[in-house]
Amino acid sequence: MPITPFHMGPGMLIKALLQGFFSLIIFGWAQLLMDIQPILVVLTGEGNLHGFSHTYIGATLIAIFSIITGRWVYQAIMIFIKKDFSDYQKKLFDVPKKLTLRVCVLSAFIGTYSHVLLDSIMHADVEPYYPISLENDINLILSIENLHKLCIYTGLLGVTIFFIIRSVKLKK
Length: 172
Description:
Number of strands: 0
Oligomer: single chain
Number of domains: 1
């Protein structure tokens, strides 16, 4: 799923379940970094669309880069959006001023590994276990339509669960 928002659906569900132990911003940053290679291939017409970045080794390296750079991205986004938050919104979204290393690591690795997993289902050219194996045993275990539905439904479920949990916590 190069350059699509579908990956954010499962991310929303994970955020809802893990709440403050997971950063949707770091997860999204990792998603964006995962698709730099496919974007460059689309723009230049050169290279393998899902090449090394869509292997678990490539995803590991991108996750590490996401961890290192993600805090700056997070802080820049928070400066931009938090200034317009009301006191209620600040409580509702429970946005920490700084992210812990644990949150960054968890969010980045879930982001990159889930990206490889979802793209392995959708794209035959993904070789997730390279260089150990060039096989992609999970390609099309779900139809593309059902994979898109899964991503959308997990996102909707995640948003619903997130706001139910946050609303209950605010009432306490």
